[in-house]
Amino acid sequence: MNTEIIHSEAPDIVDQLVDGVRAFNIVNMGSELSKPLTIVMRDVNDKIIAGIAGRTIYQKFLINVLWVDETLRSEGLGHKLMILAEKAAIERGCLAAQVDTLAFQAAGFYQLHGFEVIGSAPAFGKSPAQYFLFKHYG
Fold first, then answer.
1. Could you tell me which of 1, 57, 59, 93 has the fewest CB atoms within 10 Å of its CB?
2. CA-to-CA distance for 34 and 117, rounded, in angstroms?
3. 40 vs 1: CA distance, rounded Å
4. Whole-angstrom distance, CA of residue 86 vs CA of residue 98
């Protein structure tokens, strides 16, 4: 057996690891396709000014990132993105959503959109506290 530590992006290796987890999941939960879900907003110059990205799998919307350009915050773009993304997730059959966020980021934003904090990891050193949020649809 050889062990390797990799200090750079290795998408081919990550894909193999994900394939292994998917095979295990299929045995235990049945077949399910993980589908990306991304919505972006662009300005008149086609520059991305806001967006949300995640994926849907096993009737859940997993939010990876939501970002709004700092100069446009408080204009409701994040709210519009959440509405559009959750509508798309529900249309795909999702019954819930989940996201994690750091203490200085957006826990309050997600709570305003019906998410509940279901767990946290404490702050330490230069790492802020992290919150795990969940929302049931319907």
1. 1
2. 24
3. 45
4. 11
Span 5-20, pLDDT tens digits:
999 999 899 889 988 9
What SS3 class is residue 22?
Answer: helix
What CA–CA distance (Å, rounded) separates 46 from 56?
A: 27
Name the one residue in this structure whose structure tokens are 């959503």. Answer: 97
Contacts 24+ apart (CB under 8 A), 33-39: 33/57, 35/92, 37/61, 37/85, 37/88, 37/89, 37/92, 39/81, 39/84, 39/85, 39/88
Rounded Cα–Cα distance for residues 38 and 64 (Å): 10
Mean pLDDT estimate for the chain: 94
Helix residue spans in the chain (DSSP H): 11-29, 77-91, 107-112
Enter the tokens of residue 8: 């750079």
Residue 78 burial (CB < 10 Å; 0-12/13-18/19+)?
buried
